[in-house]
Design goal:
mainly alpha, two-stranded parallel sheet, 9 helices, globular
Length: 181
């Protein structure tokens, strides 16, 4: 969701975005991303992929095994069904926990799993609009009519509902109404 708005979010360190190898590969290989964001191919060599230290890698591997086991054994308390997480989702969780990071995701299943199973270790998540509000507040991006058009794309592609507080903050900072849900 954030890519079209801030294409250099994984290039410029000021955005403080972590790109792990699995997500990098998914962006490059998945047809949906190739079709919607053809410029990713030319930006790819500039992406800053986060390489783990030996110690971080050991922690991430242990956490990945734990996430795998828990995913097979636990039921989502909100739905009463098993969690359905892809390998990439599990890697995002294990990296997030190993690095003590927050995550921005519209994947409710991923978010519920990590909040339910790792409540003390998980630093939380931010919606895409919350991330944009932070970047606008810090002066990293200036909101324009062109950028506003990307929000129409979010609405047209049924992107996840954004928090009401983020919508209010966005409108207060930019003078534009949030057009999505």
């Amino acid at each position: 969701m954030l890519f079209p708005v801030v294409p250099d979010m994984f290039i410029d360190g000021k955005y403080d975005c972590i790109l792990i190898k699995e997500v990098h590969d998914e962006l490059i290989q998945t047809q949906k991303f190739k079709t919607r964001y053809p410029w990713i191919r030319t930006s790819r060599p500039k992406f800053r992929v986060r390489i783990l230290s030996t110690e971080e890698k050991k922690a991430e591997e242990t956490l990945f095994q734990a996430v795998n086991c828990l995913c097979e054994a636990r039921v989502n308390k909100s739905t009463g069904r098993m969690f359905d997480l892809s390998r990439e989702d599990k890697k995002v969780i294990s990296h997030t926990l190993a690095l003590g990071a927050s995550v921005s995701t519209g994947d409710n299943n991923l978010s519920r799993f990590v909040k339910q199973e790792f409540p003390l270790d998980y630093k939380g998540d931010l919606s895409a609009l919350e991330v944009l509000v932070v970047w606008i507040q810090k002066g990293f991006i200036e909101w324009t009519r062109e950028k506003q058009a990307f929000l129409l794309d979010w609405a047209n592609n049924d992107e996840p509902v954004q928090p009401a507080s983020a919508k209010r903050g966005f409108t207060a900072l930019t003078g534009f109404d949030y057009v999505g849900t």
